[in-house]
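Lab notebook, bench 4. The sequencing result for the construct came back, and we need a structural model before the next group meeting so we can plan mutations. Quick request posted to the team channel:

Model the 3D structure of this chain.
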Amino acid sequence: MPDPSRPTEPAPGPLATEHAGPATGPVVVLAHGFTQTARTWGPLADDLARDHRLALVDLPGHGGSAGVAADLVDGARLLGDAGGPGAYVGYSMGARFCLHLALARPDLVRSLVLISGTAGIDDPDERADRRAADGALADRLDPPAGGPTAEPLDDFLETWVAGPLFADVPREALALAGRRRNTPRGLASSLRLAGTGTQTPLWGRLGELSMPLLVVTGGSDRKFIDLGRRLVAAIGPSARQVVVPGTGHAPHLVDPAAVAAAVRAHLGG
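Done. Here's the predicted structure in token form:
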């Protein structure tokens, strides 16, 4: 008999969405990273909300959408339903959802910002290894029936933010209060259904994108600088890259003013 605590079938939305900024401002949709929520964008969202209408979406398995189990394809559709037409800004996991949406519904994505994003892992073996690693993480949060006790959410979050991806992020910028809106089961479903290893590589389709596209990477995040260059080269003249000095995988949390300036220049252009 299937274990009901380990959902394998997608659960329908909609995705929980919060709004900020003037009701008549241009729409910007923010799609967060893994373990984050609509409330963890910090000063970047505050800056953009001065003159943009923000739609801050809790992605599948996160925050107010903890009960929504969706893969990248279905999650992208739900993201488009929540945000509607506008500019989309996605960070890490959120960038993957935004990229899928831009390819599926370019009529909704008028411009696109990918912060520390990728179009997927090319090598099948490496992709399988990543799926296995994400599955092991998911099992810590949502163990199989008869398995070990689930890891408490706070312990998992503390371990996650202590990793090398966030070594340069100030403690207050990690917004742990916002991350505690998550549930272990929701995060586990996100890892199983929408982790990096689940993404079918999209590199061969990037030439379909014609909307203005900005790739933002941290200056010390060499892996994603190279991925960003590859994204821009594959997309063509509608894309450009900004590298934020002195930051790693989460440049918007370390230097939100620099990222906000780059995003504003992109949206204004």
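The longest strand covers residues 109-115.
Will bring this to the meeting.
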